[in-house]
Amino acid sequence: MSYFSSSKKNNINKSICNSNSMNKQIGIKVLWLDQYAKLKEENQQLKTGLDNALEYCNALLEDKESYNFEEVEGQPLLQAVNALRIQRKELKIIENEREWVSEGLSKFVDILRASQDNLEDLCDQIINNLVSYLGITQGGLFVVDENIEDRKELILISAYAYERKKYINRSIKPREGLVGQVFIEKKPMYLKEIPDQYVNISSGLGQAKPTNLFIAPMMMNEEVYGIIELASLKEMPEFQREFILKLGESIASTIAATRNAARMKVLLEDSQIQAEQMRAQEEEMRQNVEELQATQEEMHRKQKELENTNSKIKNNEAVLQKAFDKMRSADENHKVKFSDLETIVAQKDDEISKLEGEIELKNHEIEKLRGQL
């Protein structure tokens, strides 16, 4: 009985051990099944995420703007791809802005190169194309007037609104208004709240007050050559304002070059006039020199003639002197002879007087004799 009990107890213990072992195996299997299901679910989610990421990437590569990009929570890969999409979109915007600026600068470089002969025509081309390229409504271009001594003044050279040139005579002094303030401060000014009565933009529908105003200096080497004033009904992005500032530098350089060219043209014309005058003076001097040479030759010839004449005169004077000496000697002889003749004549006269007295006495005696007879 005790043996049976002991044997039975051993059998029961074995049964319990076997039961525990089976339960343990069942638990392990259940746990494995749970982990498998979880791994399968995670794998499916990963596959879904990869498929979505692949779809996102293909959409990005094909630039599908209509694709519905949505951030999915709990999917870091999709979030990273979406962040990459946003960054790429921002870079594309920046690239488009840079391309817009580059194309604009290239366009205006061609305009600046083609219109350097006349400053007013150049300003008309600039402001007309600038208003059109920016898609704004109105613009004006002021240039520093260099013809005024001891002071500077800004002259409105060209103004455009709605693709029409506006003929406005307007001059602004430094510190006068917003344009004069920008000229003094040498810094751009951007206003989204424009003062009342500053400017109105006329359209086919009436008058509209602009909401944005950008005034930029045209500078080169820290010197302001002019001011660009632009008014718009819409906001002007920063890249457009930077484009205007860069363009202002090119315009300032062109204005300086145009003015230098005008000065050089004036100097060239003056030098040509002076050269013509010098050539005329040289020709006149050459003619004067030739006339002077001819005069000198004539003087030399006359001098030689005069010398010959003087020599002849001297010879003649010697001959005349000899003749004069002979004449004087002859005259002296003649005087002596004349004196002798006068003496003889006087003697003869005395003799004649004596003879006449004797004749008269004879006649008187004869008369007496006749009376006696």
* Residues in helix, %: 55-70%
The fourth-level CATH homologous superfamily of the largest domain is: GAF domain
The SS-based structural class is: alpha+beta
Q: Name the overall outline.
A: rod-shaped
Q: How many separate domains?
A: 2
Order of helices and strands: HHHEEEEHEEEEEH
CATH architecture of the largest domain: 2-Layer Sandwich
- Strand portion: 5-15%
Question: What is the class of the largest domain in the CATH system?
Answer: Alpha Beta
CATH fold node name of the largest domain: Beta-Lactamase
DSSP strand count: 9
Query: What's the helix count?
Result: 5
Main beta sheet: strand number and arrangement?
7 strands, antiparallel
The Cα radius of gyration reads: 67 Å
Quote the distance from N terminus to C terminus.
Answer: 284 Å
Mean pLDDT: 77
Extract low-pLDDT stretches: 202-206
Task: Explain what the structure shows.
The chain contains five helices and nine strands; from the N terminus they run αααββββαβββββα. The strands form two sheets. Strands 1, 2, 3, 4, 5, 8 and 9 form a seven-stranded antiparallel β-sheet that branches. A two-stranded antiparallel ribbon has the order 6-7. About 1% of the residues have low confidence. α1 runs parallel beside α2 and α2 runs parallel beside α5. Helices cover 69% and strands 13% of the residues. It has 373 residues and is of the alpha+beta class. It starts with a helix and ends with a helix. The chain is rod-shaped, with a radius of gyration of 67 Å. The protein has two domains: 83 residues, no CATH class; 202 residues, 2-Layer Sandwich (Beta-Lactamase). Pfam families: GAF_2. InterPro entries: GAF, GAF-like_dom_sf. Keywords: Coiled coil. This is GAF domain-containing protein. It comes from Flammeovirga pectinis.
